Amino acid sequence: MNEFDLIKQYFRNVSPVVEGTTLGNGDDCALLQLKPNQTMAVSVDTLVEGVHFPCGASANDIAQRALRTALSDLAAMAATPRWVTLALTLPQHNSDWLSAFSEGLRADLHAFNCELIGGDTTRGALTISVQVMGVVENYPALTRAGAKVGDGIFVTHTLGNGAASLLQVLGKLQSLALPNALCSELDDLFYRPELAFYVAQQLHAVATSAIDISDGLVADLKHICTASGVGAKVNVAQLPYSATAKSLAKGIENTALNSERLTAQQLLQQWALYGGDDYQLCFTAPAHAVAELKEQTPLAATQIGVVVAEQGVQLHNNGQALAVQHKNGYTHFE
Amino acid sequence: MNEFDLIKQYFRNVSPVVEGTTLGNGDDCALLQLKPNQTMAVSVDTLVEGVHFPCGASANDIAQRALRTALSDLAAMAATPRWVTLALTLPQHNSDWLSAFSEGLRADLHAFNCELIGGDTTRGALTISVQVMGVVENYPALTRAGAKVGDGIFVTHTLGNGAASLLQVLGKLQSLALPNALCSELDDLFYRPELAFYVAQQLHAVATSAIDISDGLVADLKHICTASGVGAKVNVAQLPYSATAKSLAKGIENTALNSERLTAQQLLQQWALYGGDDYQLCFTAPAHAVAELKEQTPLAATQIGVVVAEQGVQLHNNGQALAVQHKNGYTHFE
């Protein structure tokens, strides 16, 4: 099967057709049109087998993680997903693998209503580059710059799912004999992280800056501080943890896996601050504006600190200073 | 050096800033704006070491081939290049390699006036995915569909450089002891194919369809025929060959490399029909419209055939039928 047949069989008609596509997949280029009041947001992310996901991961899972980790950058700018291109490098043609990959892709392209408008398939080590293009309409995009001294620092939903699910995917939890339901929930959280699009759409009017948490809260908050020329003071006592992360932390607390003998609470803190891969948003906004917004509509956001003039990220626990560790959430499966 | 430092050192400020960029490299997404009368053309191409270029090729060369082979798809639609994203997967951090890669990239980003607005760097087998975004303004883009029975079939500039330079890059010409100047010219043609942007801009008003010749003239012309629902009748006697390809064909004619004992003319024909990688355009247009255009402005285009109703590609040599071979220009360095 040559490249053209492969694309036709597995990647044609895999996605919805969205507004603004003048010409989709199948010619030299796709052709796209924006309305006058629309700005296009573009980002690209690459996943490499053995680095960003374990060797032997299911093709369905890989497709969904690749798409979602890329789409997360659109959420961080309060853009609405619209178009995707896929550069897929594969060691060999394997129709079972390709069918599963295209099924995973299809499900998420429909879930996020974006159209696959182009791509390239090549022979080589398994590598997936996804470029996402979204639209920001009638309001400015959220960037990392714009945080003001005195703003509150917020995170969307909860933290800890990224780090907890990574332990599962790395195979580190095998000795715990966790219930199957929890294992598969952790797998799910890794390959299908929940994205913060809905919250982003709600908060764009009040937020002064935003970033998606892929490298860890501390590392990503530093990007906001650098871009905005401000500092951040975070109260770790206010960090919101996911129920799954909480139960895993409890389960690990008194086992050999907890080599540093941390409490469940301390484990959660580490995961939330440095674990990364949560794909939730960290944003800044005047606290009163967020409070007003919460009176009008439920907003899944928790204040965790304040923007200060002194550069860098400071951590404290209800006023007691905490050292910032210089590690980041970079994950490596080799 | 982490990913952020690497991007800052080698890929920030590597390109011009172009019209329509609201926010460039460095945030979660780049932000782009089009004018109301503009359409965006998008394409992605991946090069894998050992498949699309030989192992050990210079980083400067790889960067330029990666960018140009991607840009060629914009030329085929008569789009003007504007934005580029780069997904670069590398086996290790090597500052000499990265400096050379970014220098090659810088030169061509400036040559084609396009801005690098985003990317991702990851660890793995050397793989380069380049996504190009261009603008089609005030006229429809050229697509593969639209060829009409009776139209002339044309190619831009000359053919044969792709196949000739591939022989050099594959190391097949070593026994010939060619002059250094010719060897380096052939290397140049492979890594820096000349693109047909200028001709594309001239002919967009008269052409009914177009494609860039990457897989070989016959294979690419078949794509036009399929998309347009027509057939093509090509007179191989009219194929325009490059001077370099001609001198190489003469040089090979009476050597062991010419295992099929073809004449120089037959070698050139094979290269032009099936060799691919020429990155010239094949387009269709009413012959009289092209003739009129040629009276107003020099147009580097040669008629090589006519569009016919009978599906598929037929070849003849001044009326004498020639069999179409079922091979394509796919190149493999493994």
From TrEMBL, chains A, B:
It comes from the Bacteria. Mg(2+) 2 binds at D45, D73. Mg(2+) 1 binds at D45, D120. It holds the Pfam family AIRS_C. GO terms for molecular function: ATP binding; magnesium ion binding; thiamine-phosphate kinase activity. ATP binds at G119, D120, R144, S214. Substrate binds at H52, D277, Y330. Mg(2+) 5 binds at D215. One of its GO terms (biological process) is thiamine biosynthetic process. Residues 26-136 form the PurM-like N-terminal domain. It catalyses: thiamine phosphate + ATP = thiamine diphosphate + ADP. Pathway: Cofactor biosynthesis; thiamine diphosphate biosynthesis; thiamine diphosphate from thiamine phosphate: step 1/1. The keyword Nucleotide-binding applies. Mg(2+) 4 binds at D28, S43, D73. Its EC number is 2.7.4.16. Mg(2+) 3 binds at D28, D73, D212. InterPro entries: PurM-like_C_dom, PurM-like_C_sf, PurM-like_N, PurM-like_N_sf, ThiL-like. It is an enzyme of class 2 (transferase). Catalyzes the ATP-dependent phosphorylation of thiamine-monophosphate (TMP) to form thiamine-pyrophosphate (TPP), the active form of vitamin B1. Belongs to the thiamine-monophosphate kinase family. This is Thiamine-monophosphate kinase. It comes from Saccharophagus degradans (strain 2-40 / ATCC 43961 / DSM 17024). The lineage of its organism: Bacteria, Pseudomonadati, Pseudomonadota, Gammaproteobacteria, Cellvibrionales.
